[in-house]
Amino acid sequence: MWKSNKRLKICGRIMSIVILMSFWNYPVLGEQLTVQPLNSYESEIKRYSDYEVDTLIEELTEAALEAIEQAAAEAAKAMALSMLEREAAAMREATLQQAEALRWRLEAERQIKAVKDAKRVGIKNAIIAGAVCLLGGLVIGISGTIYFGGR
Asked: What is the pLDDT of residue 38?
């Protein structure tokens, strides 16, 4: 208990020192100035003539026009590139559609060939079945005639 009392006393002293220091008016952290200090005097102000002002305005105008022209050129390049990209995408889509159409055409041709082969096989099987039935009927008829005719 005595140990914890000593610790509490030390903690209380530190807290009281910190609280008292917070009331003092001295800068703890150096903050950056957000506004330039006002120390301009009449002797430090430079006076420009009308010619210098006009020259400066002309230079700024020329620089602005060059910047505008450069921005327009960049915009034209970007527009051309986007048009090329859209055209390439359209060509890719058309190629995919043509490939899909070719696949379906080949599938239809394969199905038509399979149907023709099935018809050919069916006709062949029907002829064979008819011939077997005819021969079977003849055999049964002749054998029946012989068997029953001889009695």
From this structure: 58
